Amino acid sequence: MPGTAARKTQKTFCRICEAQCGLAVTTENNRVVAIEPNTDHVASKGYACIKGLRMGDFVHNPDRLTTPLKKVDGQFVPIDWDQAIAEIGAKLRAIHARHGGSAIAAYMGNPIGFSLWPTTALTFFLRAFGADKLFTPGTQDCANKFAGGERLFGGPGDQVFPDIDHTQLLIAVGTNPVISKMSFISLPHPMRRIEAIEARGGKVYWVNPRRTESAKRVGEHVPIRPDADLFFMLAFLNEVIARDAVDHARVAQYMNGFDALADVARPWTPERVEAVTAIPAARLREMVSAYLAADGAALYSSTGVNQGSQGLLVYWIQEAINAVSGNLDRRGGVLAGKGALPRQAQAGETPRSRINDIPYVNSTVPAGILADEILTPGSGQVRAMINMSGNPLLTCAGSTRLAEAFGALELFVCIDIVRNETAAYADYILPGLHSLERADIPFYFFSIMGLMPTRSFSYTDAVLAPAGDARDEGLIYRQLCRAAGRPFAGQRAVQSLSNVAQMLDALPGIGGRSGLDRWFFSLLSRAAKLGGLNKLRKAPDGVLLQPNEPGDYLGKRVQTASGRVELAPPDLLARAQSLEAVFARHLEERDSLKLIQKRERYTHNSWAHNAEAFVQGGRDTNYLYIHPDDAGPRALGDGDTASVSVGGNAIQVPVRLDENMLPGSVAVPHGWGHQRADGLSVARHTRGANVNEIIPDGPQSLEPLSGMSHMNGVVVQVSRAS
Ligand SMILES: Nc1nc2c(c(=O)[nH]1)N[C@H]1C(S)=C(S)[C@@H](COP(=O)(O)OP(=O)(O)OC[C@H]3O[C@@H](n4cnc5c(=O)[nH]c(N)nc54)[C@H](O)[C@@H]3O)O[C@H]1N2
Ligand SMILES: Nc1nc2c(c(=O)[nH]1)N[C@H]1C(S)=C(S)[C@@H](COP(=O)(O)OP(=O)(O)OC[C@H]3O[C@@H](n4cnc5c(=O)[nH]c(N)nc54)[C@H](O)[C@@H]3O)O[C@H]1N2
Ligand code: SF4
Ligand SMILES: [Mo]
């Protein structure tokens, strides 16, 4: 039983970032007394970071929501669950009757994305209303990879990752593992494994506008102008082809479209792109030489690239390089993920957004048009919205328009563990579970996509009983459906279940499903086959699965219609027609300052500022990080206040001179600007500003095809604040 009075230590895994480290949590009287890294965990082997180790500060936060709240005359007042469910259910029923399912939408935030059950339950809920508008942080984060995987490899979940423990050369573009622990790869203690590359005689390059904490630890830093990665990749491919270092036999056997791909790269010589990348041609050639000479090499890029204006094309050219050079599906190159659980079959036609006809990626709508979907009248206008474990007001582009949009909703329900900035606009706030309060299996990226150098599977029971009246989100959705008269997931057996543990237990008795639920149940039955709940319970350190072997992908598991890797998808070729225009824009913008993002050790997107330990000292604000050469002419010194603006929108932040920034690039971390957060008693006393107030949203700001918000490489004006 979770939450018993007696002191006990229980093993679990952290659900804050993709490393998913094993933890040993000691509790007494349903409170965390201590959290230690689990030294016996099969994948993390005793690694954990400050956020996992101090989770207690958040699960027992004084501002923790313990009862439903309803807004009455502008104030939030506590109500009981029966009233909350009945009232919200009635409103959903009425909005559905008047406008249909397309008027109901949801935003599913990042923290809960690591838990498989509530996220699945939300999709059941939306389906019960025939609602298809699901917004997620994906389009602030990685949707270019989903869109690229779809085109090159056959599905959004078809992704590759560096064979990190065997590679002889890693070119890491737009990532900072010391701080972030990376993305699209589950890599606890990433630096130890990256440092090992050099220790075994290999090499590491970091392509990044900023000389990061990671670049200081190991390898060589290759400074690049923000958002210029596409031209770096094109010149890299150009050089690989110019040297005829293409593995023609492999290409002929397993890939389509090489000639068209080569045509795309032809104009982009290392000399030509130098003007926009700032990477000298000789330096780029040296990297190509190292890549080609290595016995297994991997090009990897991450969020710094994804959030640029061309993330999908960068992904395309990068994976094409890995493929044609023979490094895809090769020891030490990149391996195609293989999850422990079956993948959801691709549905038929890709839906497209009402606003600007943007294709959904991985079944989600770009968050960059969330405000437009709410504010634009017409059939399909969003009138009711559920926001689960998200803080879009601080984390999505265009905060000012989003505030207006949330204010215009007929029904806005936030489910969270605290009352965040977004929840100020809610009609109802419902207390959900902290991850320590739920049973779980590893989330989508690992259970299903399998992006794990150490392939493993874990199950955890809940460690704590829910705080106060906090309730499992899946149960909330089931009850809301019942109150609104909609069939949850369309089948009775599911309606009696309320969490992943119950689902695993009930598995043998459940039959007759379709679509999504069939996928979820087959996934769970596979989990059960991995040992069944009781066996998984006996393996609190996780179970190791057969490692991902090279040679098991090409010609065997490629999911495209042709069964071959598509090197020249038609819509990407069409996009490539505009490369000259993109290049010309970069040349024009050469003297402008460009904004990039920056993550920090004690910050996790928007949620980690409501505990004293995380915001002490100079950590109580974000800063403008700027090179002294850019600060000087603007009369900015350390500690001054700068005004940073895009168009007519400006924010004010304190200045930190930073020699690590490439001149011409400035960084402002996101997730700040809590001053008006009534529900966050610590965070509201922090300083800093919300950078997403100046990052534009709307259809024109998105990368076409992937819907990614353009957050990196935005041209900004910086001046001394008056
Ligand atoms: N400008 C700019 N914007 C960005 C980014 C950037 O680099 N620059 N990064 C983007 C990225 S990559 C991401 S993923 C998004 C993330 O942005 P969001 O999806 O909005 O998520 P968070 O801000 O991490 O957290 C949202 C809420 O989750 C709640 N929460 C935390 N832990 C738990 C839990 O255990 N249970 C429940 N139920 N709730 C919990 C918190 O209280 C918080 O209110 O931000 C994006 N926004
Ligand atoms: N401490 C901490 N850890 C986190 C998070 C957090 O907020 N705090 N967030 C988590 C989440 S949600 C995610 S998605 C992951 C992300 O983890 P990563 O994918 O590793 O991304 P970041 O740490 O944001 O690092 C992005 C890097 O890209 C660089 N960059 C910016 N613009 C460009 C560009 O145009 N080109 C190139 N080549 N580089 C560029 C930045 O300088 C930065 O060093 O981190 C996770 N881990
Ligand atoms: S690295 Fe990520 S998964 Fe590991 S303890 Fe820290 S936040 Fe949790
Ligand atoms: Mo993210």
How much strand content do the residues show?
15-25%
Structural class: alpha/beta
Please name the CATH architecture of the largest domain. Answer: 3-Layer(aba) Sandwich
Bound molecules: ligand MGD, iron/sulfur cluster, molybdenum atom
Let me know the number of strands.
26
Mean pLDDT: 93
Walk me through the topology:
Blueprint: E1 8-13, E2 22-28, E3 31-37, H1 50-53, H2 56-59, E4 69-72, E5 75-78, H3 81-99, E6 104-108, H4 116-128, E7 133-135, H5 143-153, E8 160-162, E9 169-173, H6 177-180, H7 190-199, E10 203-207, H8 213-217, E11 220-222, H9 229-242, H10 248-254, E12 255-256, H11 258-265, H12 270-277, H13 281-293, E13 297-301, H14 303-306, H15 311-324, E14 334-336, H16 370-375, E15 384-388, H17 392-395, H18 399-408, E16 411-416, E17 428-431, H19 444-447, E18 456-457, H20 473-484, H21 492-495, H22 500-506, H23 515-529, H24 532-537, E19 543-544, E20 565-566, H25 570-576, H26 579-588, E21 593-596, H27 612-615, E22 624-626, H28 628-631, E23 641-646, E24 649-657, E25 665-667, E26 714-720
Bound molecules: ligand MGD (2 copies), iron/sulfur cluster and molybdenum atom.
Describe the structure in your own words.
- The chain is built from 28 helices and 26 strands.
- The protein has a seven-stranded mixed β-sheet with strand order 5-4-17-16-15-6-7, with helices on one face. Strands 21-25-22-24-23-26 form a six-stranded mixed β-barrel.
- The protein has 722 residues and is of the alpha/beta class.
- Helix 4 links the parallel strand 6 (104-108) and strand 7.
- The protein folds into four domains: 8-59, Phosphorylase Kinase, domain 1, CATH 3.30.200.210; 69-140 and 345-446 and 455-536, 3-Layer(aba) Sandwich (Rossmann fold), CATH 3.40.50.740; 150-336 and 553-574, 3-Layer(aba) Sandwich (Dimethylsulfoxide Reductase, domain 2); 592-720, Barwin-like endoglucanases (Beta Barrel).
- Helix content is 32%, strand content 16%.
- Residues 507-517 have low confidence and may be disordered.
